[in-house]
């Protein structure tokens, strides 16, 4: 199998990540749930991972790193926990994933917020000025992806973050497709809340997401239960991160994230160079094939999205898998407003997403397959 679906989850997991998971499963203990040595050791290891995450994104207080089950749950905490009263006006964009859109549209349907959904300009930019033009007296939140999961659209989060900070508006960034692919500096970019998963660009495993936030933008808890701390209270503790981590944490996935961050710090530069090489080879090759229309933009995340005429992307994906042993993503990519904006809501797009472990040989095999598929579709 040639795996070109790394934007969904990276196929390669570093050996130290796998070893960490196995060790954690062989020596299970609930962090922060007892005074015995195994629980204390698990708590200390998770604290070390918090420190690694905070350093990676330049967050001053590691206690403001909250672990969750995935990026979607982290974004739900960021969004739902930041809407602290009725009447908020929120700004987002057509490029967002349903993990952003569905919480926002649910809040709008309940009459809790008003919502503005912005589209990029003719030069495929969503500028800070465009965001500012959407401000009104009730604007309290801006929620945007760093990199689009459909076409790789890259937001200028630093400029938008500066605008939001000066206006006193909370800025939430979905880094699902940028963490591990490009630098994220919460302080320089003035990001208030940052959500990302372990299992994509960082090469961790599924089952772990992170929400990082500054003290001024600390959200309200949205899940309540046992934390292992202040158990005499019948209300959720107020201290971070305990108030956000009710229930048993996924210790194997969290500890694996720590190992993944270490691996990335040592291998990230070479990884990025290989992603750029293979993704550019795919994109340039697709340009030479009749009826192929490339829809993606230049991005650091290895995303190349395209359509072949008006053919169903699902059909093309099935052919690639069944006849050529190539895995890609098709359909709407959980981003319906993006496809509506692009005019591809009926056909969807074929999305190739490469990793640093993909090769030029795989790219050429893929291009040969697409050439044959496009030729066959033309003859039908």
Measured as a percent range, the helix fraction is 40-55%
CATH superfamily of the largest domain: Type I PLP-dependent aspartate aminotransferase-like (Major domain)
* CATH classification class of the largest domain: Alpha Beta
Q: Please tell me the overall pLDDT.
A: 96
Low-confidence stretches: none
User: Could you tell me how far the N terminus lies from the C terminus, measured between alpha carbons in angstroms?
Assistant: 28 Å
**Helix and strand string, N-terminal first?**
EHHEHEHEHEHEHEEHEEHEHEH
Q: Strand arrangement, largest sheet?
A: 2-8-7-6-5-3-4
Strand content: 5-15%
Number of DSSP helical runs:
11
Q: What's the structural domain tally?
A: 2
How would you summarize this macromolecular structure in one to three sentences?
The protein is α/β, with parallel strands linked by helices and 380 residues long. It has helices spanning 15-26, 37-57, 71-80, 98-109, 128-133, 157-167, 186-189, 251-287, 313-324, 336-342, 360-379, and strands at 2-3, 65-68, 88-93, 113-118, 139-145, 170-174, 193-197, 209-213, 292-294, 303-308, 326-327, 350-353. The protein is built from eleven helices and twelve strands.
């Amino acid at each position: 199998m040639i795996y070109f679906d790394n934007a969904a989850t990276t196929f390669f997991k570093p050996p130290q990540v796998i070893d960490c998971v196995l060790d954690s499963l062989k020596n299970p203990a609930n962090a922060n749930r007892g005074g015995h040595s195994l629980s204390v050791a698990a708590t200390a290891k998770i604290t070390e991972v918090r420190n690694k995450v905070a350093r990676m994104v330049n967050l001053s207080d590691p206690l403001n790193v909250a672990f969750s089950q995935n990026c979607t749950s982290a974004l739900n905490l960021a969004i739902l926990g930041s809407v602290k009263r009725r009447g908020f006006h929120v700004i987002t964009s057509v490029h967002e994933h349903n993990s952003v859109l569905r919480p926002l549209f649910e809040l709008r349907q309940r009459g809790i917020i008003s919502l503005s959904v912005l589209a990029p300009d003719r030069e495929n930019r969503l500028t800070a000025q465009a965001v500012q033009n959407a401000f009104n007296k009730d604007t309290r939140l801006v929620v945007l992806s760093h990199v689009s999961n459909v076409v790789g659209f890259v937001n200028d989060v630093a400029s938008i973050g500066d605008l939001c900070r000066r206006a006193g508006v909370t800025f939430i960034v979905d880094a699902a497709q940028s963490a591990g692919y490009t630098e994220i500096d919460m302080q320089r970019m003035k990001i208030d809340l940052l959500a990302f998963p372990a299992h994509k660009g960082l090469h961790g495993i599924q089952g772990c997401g992170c929400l990082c936030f500054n003290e001024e933008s600390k959200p309200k808890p949205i899940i309540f239960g046992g934390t292992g701390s202040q158990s005499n209270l019948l209300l959720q503790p107020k201290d971070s991160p305990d108030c956000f981590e009710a229930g048993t944490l996924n210790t194997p996935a969290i500890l694996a994230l720590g190992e993944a961050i270490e691996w990335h710090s040592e291998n990230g530069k070479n990884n990025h160079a290989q992603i750029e090489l293979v993704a550019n080879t795919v994109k340039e090759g697709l340009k030479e094939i009749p009826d192929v229309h490339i829809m993606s933009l230049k991005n650091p995340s290895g995303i190349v999205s395209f359509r072949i005429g008006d053919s169903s992307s699902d059909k093309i994906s099935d052919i690639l898998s069944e006849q050529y042993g190539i895995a890609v993503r098709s359909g709407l990519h959980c981003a319906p407003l993006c496809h509506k904006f692009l005019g591809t809501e009926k056909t969807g797009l074929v999305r190739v997403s490469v990793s640093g472990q993909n090769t030029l040989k795989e790219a050429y095999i893929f291009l040969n397959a697409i050439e044959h598929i496009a030729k066959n579709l033309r003859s039908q």
